[in-house]
């Protein structure tokens, strides 16, 4: 079981690295917002796997909070984009 | 047995998240990237949370992980819709191979107005109906 968890953590870290490449390269601001949302979703997955590994169920609460923050950040960014604030892509 | 199912769920979830990030990196424009990330990443998190529910197997924790699943299922489409809408209005370019853009003939980006193509003088008048109160 520990090996499986290690493998999945390596896979998800690779996913985080690939997402970060898009955050850096992303040609426009909405691309970066999408990448940041994927960031928060994969961190939720990592926290869930870590909760299984460490056998501490309270980490699931942290996962809920991270998912909530990612959603609110996406909504706020979209509002910011639609209102047409100052942008520097 | 339950260890095997748990391991399969965890690896499957991690692979779906990796798939989402590969799609985010490789696909050509904003809307196709969103199509990759929202669905694949939501499925990955759902599989991992199912594995967590099977691992702990207590009522409160199973309910909590199902709450995460429902939350992801409800928020991922909303966030994707809002970002896609903002991206279209901001004017992010569509892929050159895009087949259809149904919003383009009906939307005026300068005045931010939508038209249905049915705005005639005739349609603007209100016709009396049977159900109207006197």
Automatic annotation (TrEMBL), chain A:
Alphabetical keyword list: Antiport, Cell membrane, Ion transport, Membrane, Transmembrane, Transmembrane helix, Transport
GO molecular function: sodium:proton antiporter activity
Transmembrane annotation, as ranges: 6-24, 33-52, 58-81
Pfam families assigned: MrpF_PhaF
Localization: Cell membrane
Membrane topology, record value: Multi-pass membrane protein
One cellular component term from this protein's GO annotations in UniProt: plasma membrane
InterPro entries recorded: MrpF/PhaF-like
Family indicated by similarity: Belongs to the CPA3 antiporters (TC 2.A.63) subunit F family.
The protein's name in its UniProt record: Na(+)/H(+) antiporter subunit F
Biological source species: Vreelandella boliviensis LC1
From TrEMBL, chain B:
The keyword Transmembrane is annotated on this UniProt entry: yes
Superkingdom in the source lineage: Bacteria
Membrane-crossing segments per the record: 6-28, 40-57, 63-83
Keyword Nuclease: no
Annotated segments matching region Disordered: 108-134
GO molecular-function terms, A-Z: sodium:proton antiporter activity
Cross-referenced InterPro entries: PhaG_MnhG_YufB
Pfam families: PhaG_MnhG_YufB
UniProt feature coiled coil, ranges: none
This protein's UniProt keywords: Membrane, Transmembrane, Transmembrane helix
UniProt-recorded name of the protein: Sodium:proton antiporter
The organism of origin for this protein: Halomonas campaniensis
